[in-house]
């Protein structure tokens, strides 16, 4: 069983149904998850200075709690949480000074056995495309979907190691296993503007609109992401576009739900994806 780390953003935006859809999909596909008994914000941003240790504490607590509760790894749905948790985990296993200082503060030891997983990684490695195909009731034939990867679970590739940072294909492979046609387009690994949306809206507007217009020009009718911040920015920043320039933006769970929507176990969710 995997430990589950919701994170602040996913839990705060329940109306998006990202958490509910993700957990229901995993349940259907036979992946057991259980929320950690205690967790707190991961910090949202990985500290880049080598002598910062306090920002590591909350993530280490989650990693250690996963060990204590004998989970087979730690699952998160949020790309920012994945980015921070995995990099902190790497640092605790590779930086002896950081490990010593964090453990001294916590007055506990972290063995370093926890593995951090993102939702789409679990679909690839724990479920597999063959099993996903077997569950398809309504193939997404005729749909042209563009995957937006962004930056948080791509870079630095040497630390995250989830996808090829220059040419990621994982979300496309998931969509293709559901019968959809995937659209290749420029800027799919560029940043959406991230937290600039709160203070320098023009920066996020330019970054996100460039992504949307490129996907639209390439023929996509839908743009999917696995990051709450990316989804927010893409939706918010297309408000100034002309109607014929806009595109439907969803989490990747949405087309999965549509493809599996004929299954009785997903009956209560099928309307959410329409």
How is this fold's topology laid out?
Layout: E1 2-5, H1 8-12, H2 18-28, E2 33-35, H3 57-68, E3 74-76, H4 79-94, H5 96-106, E4 116-118, H6 119-127, H7 129-134, E5 144-147, H8 157-160, H9 170-177, E6 181-182, H10 201-217, E7 222-225, H11 228-237, E8 248-251, H12 253-260
Parallel strand pairs: 1-2, 1-3, 3-4, 5-6, 5-7, 7-8
Describe the structure.
The protein is an alpha/beta fold and 274 residues long. It has 2 domains: 2-120, Glutathione S-transferase Yfyf (Class Pi), Chain A, domain 2, CATH 1.20.1050.140; 129-273, 3-Layer(aba) Sandwich (Rossmann fold), CATH 3.40.50. Helices cover 43% and strands 10% of the residues. It is built from 12 helices and 8 strands. The chain has helices at residues 8-12, 18-28, 57-68, 79-94, 96-106, 119-127, 129-134, 157-160, 170-177, 201-217, 228-237, 253-260; strands at 2-5, 33-35, 74-76, 116-118, 144-147, 181-182, 222-225, 248-251. The strands form 2 sheets. A 4-stranded parallel beta sheet has the order 2-1-3-4, with helices on both faces. Strand 7 (222-225), helix 11 (228-237) and strand 8 form a beta-alpha-beta unit. It is globular, with a radius of gyration of 19 Å. It starts with a strand and ends in a 14-residue tail after the last helix.
Key features of this structure:
single chain; 274 residues; alpha/beta; 4-stranded parallel beta sheet; 8 strands; 10% strand; globular; disordered C terminus
């Amino acid at each position: 069983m995997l430990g589950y780390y919701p994170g602040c953003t996913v839990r705060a935006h329940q109306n998006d149904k990202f958490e509910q859809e993700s957990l229901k999909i995993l349940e259907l596909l036979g992946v057991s998850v259980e929320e950690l008994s205690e967790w707190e914000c991961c910090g949202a941003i990985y500290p880049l200075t080598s002598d910062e240790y306090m920002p590591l504490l909350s993530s280490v607590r989650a990693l250690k709690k996963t060990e204590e509760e004998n989970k087979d790894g730690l699952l998160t749905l949020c790309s920012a949480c994945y980015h921070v948790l995995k990099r902190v985990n790497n640092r605790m296993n590779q930086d002896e000074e950081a490990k010593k200082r964090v453990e001294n503060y916590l007055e506990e030891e972290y063995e370093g056995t926890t593995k951090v997983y993102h939702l789409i990684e679990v679909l690839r490695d724990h479920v597999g495309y063959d099993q996903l195909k077997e569950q398809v009731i309504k193939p997404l034939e005729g749909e042209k979907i563009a995957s937006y990867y962004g930056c948080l679970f791509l870079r630095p590739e040497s630390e995250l190691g989830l996808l090829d940072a220059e040419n990621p294909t994982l979300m496309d492979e998931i969509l293709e296993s559901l019968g959809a046609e995937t659209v290749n387009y420029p800027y799919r690994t560029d940043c959406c503007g991230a937290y600039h949306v709160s203070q320098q809206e023009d920066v996020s507007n330019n970054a996100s609109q460039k992504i949307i217009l490129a996907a639209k020009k390439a023929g996509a009718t839908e743009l999917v992401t696995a990051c709450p911040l990316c989804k927010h920015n893409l939706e918010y920043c297309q408000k100034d576009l002309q109607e014929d320039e806009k595109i439907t933006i969803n989490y990747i769970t949405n087309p999965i739900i549509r493809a599996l929507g004929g299954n009785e176990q997903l009956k209560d969710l099928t309307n959410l994806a329409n």
